[in-house]
Amino acid sequence: MAALPPQPIGQSQSYLAILDRVSDSAVLERPVLIVGERGTGKELIAKRLHFLSPRWEKVFLTVNCAAFTDERLDEEFFGQSFLDGRDDTNGKFYHADEGTIFLDNVDSVSPRLQEKLMGAIEYGRYEASGEHAEQEVDVRVIAASAVDLPAAVARGDFRADLLDRLAFEVMTLPPLRARRDDILPLADHFGKKIAAELGADRFPGFTAEASEQLLDRNWVGNVRELKTIVERNTAQAWLADETLKDPIGGGPAGPLQFDPFESPHRLRERRPQEMPSAPKSSLPQTNTPMPAYTLPPLEKNAPHQVEPLDFQNRVLTFERKLIDEALHVSGNHQGKAAEHLGLSYHQFRGLMRKHGLKK
Fold it and tell me: What is the CATH number of the domain that holds 239?
């Protein structure tokens, strides 16, 4: 018997509706196809389907179909028989007999292997590679995908008969942005869990501003992205103060950090045509508007090549100069500094976070 899955967390109507469908479908001995964006918790739903089913005391096995080559996936599914003295291997379908097998990223299965998979699902029979005798198994199949499988069928990338068989029941998981009521409970859950792992006595929750930012984010990576961001910021707050007395998003660790790659020195991929060239010049320091400047033509036999400008770093440097100037004239009052730049307070705070300032 596999370990019990974690309890799903959610109170939004769209997520509760999915959980109701899981309860209804769990008792059926038929395939289920779970579709949804990356990070929406497809494996969690698959495990819940298994543990609410009559097979709950039997094995639950997972195969990430995207992690193997075609030949290795064939062996992972069905095993292999060797003629050179090596021990034969048994695949996941063999080991999942009377239990459940979860095929994640099923869209990655090759057309050749899709046909073999179809036989195992439809008839409960398969042949191991190098073997001519059929093996019979009783396995419930739950599959998952983050792509549009009907469109894949139309392109010829996925077998229509396999999709028909898998789609006895199709559950489409809502993205996190459609579960706004679940964002803060999930964030609190992930924060408490990592705080306990770090040895902190308590989890202080989030500042009002941090909670607002969590609610307003688009969450392209869904629950997985939320979990990573909460864990990273909680860990940084613990490193700054192991008592975790200040809510996350405030205190010594500063505001929430969403992009760990953000830096004034961030590496960015550039194409050659995106890097304009211009001669260096010493511009006078003046408050009067500068006249239009036309680049002179390069001399045919110029002794040196003109160096390309690093556009992104110059923009970041100019932004930082404006921030420093606004803070200086406003006596480090962030609200007045925002007004000085014609920005809202939250826009100015966003710039402060972007440049790693903790004033």
Answer: 1.10.8.60
